[in-house]
Specification:
It is a single chain. A six-stranded mixed beta sheet has the order 9-8-7-10-11-12, sandwiched between helices. The chain is globular and about 100 Å long. By secondary structure, the chain is of the alpha+beta class.
């Protein structure tokens, strides 16, 4: 057994020392052309919204940046019943280490609790999610439950234990709402605008429009700012979750359930002012709400989800509601028009539809029975065409546009519109951090990790079987390259930035015996006293295979 040492005494956040073995600039594998298999999920529906499940490979054309590409594989995926839906598998709020591979389906359930209107909406959402657990989803499905109240919290880390998750959903449904009642209610804003107009209209020498405009705009501005803040917070949570899921192998999706994601926050309040005071619209109202426009922020969330290969699904928690017939006293003129009230619902739905549609997902809108709607959603999640094509890997971080055409058929096709040529080092870091957060690790290289105290440091011993590495022949025998990525999480759940280092593997001309060896690599790093979780990724740079390992360590005070 041959050992390599890497010393890191300045702390695990410091750069790895240059004295460790550096890869040779003349290594043979530096000249090879790398390609990456890009996986794409196609969901196809006819004009009536029914899934189309009889397409052949010849029916589908895929384009990258406008250029047609050859398909490497094409397969229809259909749901297979799980043999043990309620079998216990690492339940609880703390992430337990679970094995994962490319067949795993990761479904993150995100409940925007702060936006829900009240007990009825909350019960509708949680009952719908409980029903989703009984639906036919891919066999190896893992569920995560994240509740967004004043701050986001993971109520249940990824688990296949549906019975345990169902109990957690029932508990959460019984809790008090996170949002103060009527804080963002359109009815409250409509009433405030109407009252402001009517107070001036009743005055002896005042006009509701001329003298009440300032107060009416103040109320509309308050509404727009509150909605904008909520939408931004919700999108930030979706973006955070998307980034964390990116490091997991297999199919990944987020199901967001909330009040809505308004593309134009407050537009219905400004529109009401324009209804009441049409002569003032051009001067004071028409361009006022544009300062709160969230179109760019929504598009950024779509681009991020596409780059991370995460499909977004959304659901409106309010269900099918008619016009909000607000009871207002006084003149009929001070009421919001029917169009203005409809505009509020359309605006809430606009962002939900956009982020779902443009990432290949689906929005559930105007559904009073979310249990039934989520059952249909489960079929959409589990039934799709798995399509793959090869693309040259440059690792430049660029986004590439995807286009799909079904030959000669007017079908509705949904898919992620872009993919990102992710740098290899960045991808490995994401896999490692996902393992730290969710406890999902894979070990195809059969590597081993052992932690032990060392002089003035903590030592990680990494054992890598040579036979599992891809080696290239050289004049001296064979050569390979292993990349190590180290990350440490403290007891509070915070981790430092991952650090990377490459280590060369050289074999003598008689490689048959050497391939049976296990190489040891030592990593010494300094930690303050406390409890930590250490995660290490071992990446075969030639073969493109990564193992992620995790172990806990307690550092005692000197």
């Amino acid at each position: 057994m041959r050992a390599f040492g890497v010393l890191l005494l300045a702390g695990f956040l410091s750069p790895w020392p240059a004295s460790a073995q550096e890869p040779s600039p003349t290594a043979v594998f530096k000249d090879q052309v790398e390609v990456e298999l890009i996986q794409l999920e196609l969901r196809v529906n006819d004009k009536k919204g029914r899934p189309v499940l009889d397409l052949e490979r010849a029916d589908v054309e895929v384009f990258v940046d406008g250029q047609k590409v050859e398909l490497a594989h094409f397969e229809l995926q259909r749901p297979k019943p799980s043999p043990a839906k309620d079998a216990p598998s690492s339940p609880g709020t703390a992430a337990a280490t679970v094995a994962a591979d490319d067949r795993t389906f990761w479904l993150a359930l995100l409940v925007d609790d702060k936006s829900l209107d009240g007990p009825a909406s909350r019960r509708r959402v949680y009952d719908g999610l409980a029903a989703l657990l009984d639906a036919e989803l891919p066999q190896d499905t893992r569920f995560l439950l994240l509740i967004e109240g004043a701050t986001p919290r993971i109520a249940s880390s990824f688990t296949a234990d549906r019975a345990s998750l169902r109990r957690i959903l029932e508990f959460e449904a019984a809790q008090a709402p996170a949002r103060p009642q009527d804080l963002l209610s359109p009815s409250r804003i409509f009433r405030a605008i109407s009252d402001a107009w009517w107070r001036m209209e009743e005055g002896l020498h005042t006009s509701g429009c001329a003298d009440g405009m300032k107060e009416m705009l103040r109320h509309a501005d308050e509404r727009a700012f509150q909605v904008k803040s909520r939408v931004d917070q919700s999108l930030a949570t979706i973006d955070w979750l998307t980034n964390q899921l990116a490091g997991l192998p297999g199919q990944k999706a987020v199901l967001y359930a909330g009040h809505g994601l308004e593309q134009q926050p407050g537009i219905e309040a400004f529109r009401m002012i324009a209804d009441i005071c049409p002569d003032e619209e051009a001067r004071d109202v028409s361009s006022y709400y544009t300062r709160y426009d969230r179109t760019t922020v929504l598009r950024n969330s779509v681009r991020l989800a596409n780059a991370r290969a995460v499909t977004l699904y959304t659901a409106d928690a309010n269900g099918l509601t008619g016009d909000d017939q607000v009871s207002l006293t006084g003149s009929i003129k001070a009421r919001p028009s029917s169009f203005t009230q409809q505009l509020e619902a359309l605006n809430r739905h606009s962002g939900l539809h956009q982020i779902a549609r443009d990432t290949g997902g689906k929005a559930v809108l105007n559904a009073n029975d979310l249990a039934q709607a989520f059952d249909h959603l489960a079929e959409d999640l589990a039934s799709f065409y798995s399509v793959g094509f090869y693309h040259p890997r440059r690792g430049d971080g660029e986004l590439h546009d995807i286009g799909v055409r079904i030959a000669g058929r007017p079908y509705d096709v949904r898919y992620r519109a872009q993919f990102r040529d992710e740098p290899e080092a960045e991808r490995i870091e994401r896999e490692l951090l996902a393992g730290l957060l969710f406890g999902a690790h894979g070990n195809p290289l059969q590597a081993e990790l052992a932690l032990a105290p060392a002089e003035k440091a903590t030592r990680a011993t990494v054992r890598v079987p040579v036979g599992g590495l891809t080696l290239l022949p050289t004049e001296q025998g064979a050569h390979g390259l292993v990349r190590l990525v180290l990350a440490v999480k403290d007891a509070a759940g915070l981790w430092g930035s991952p650090r990377q280092k490459q280590v060369e593997i050289d074999l003598a001309p008689d490689t048959s015996q050497a391939r049976a060896e296990t190489r040891e690599i030592f990593v010494d790093f300094d930690l303050a006293p406390g409890a930590y979780t250490v995660a290490l990724a071992v990446h075969d740079e030639v073969g493109g295979i990564t193992s992620t390992l995790e172990q806990k360590v307690a550092v005692a005070a000197n």
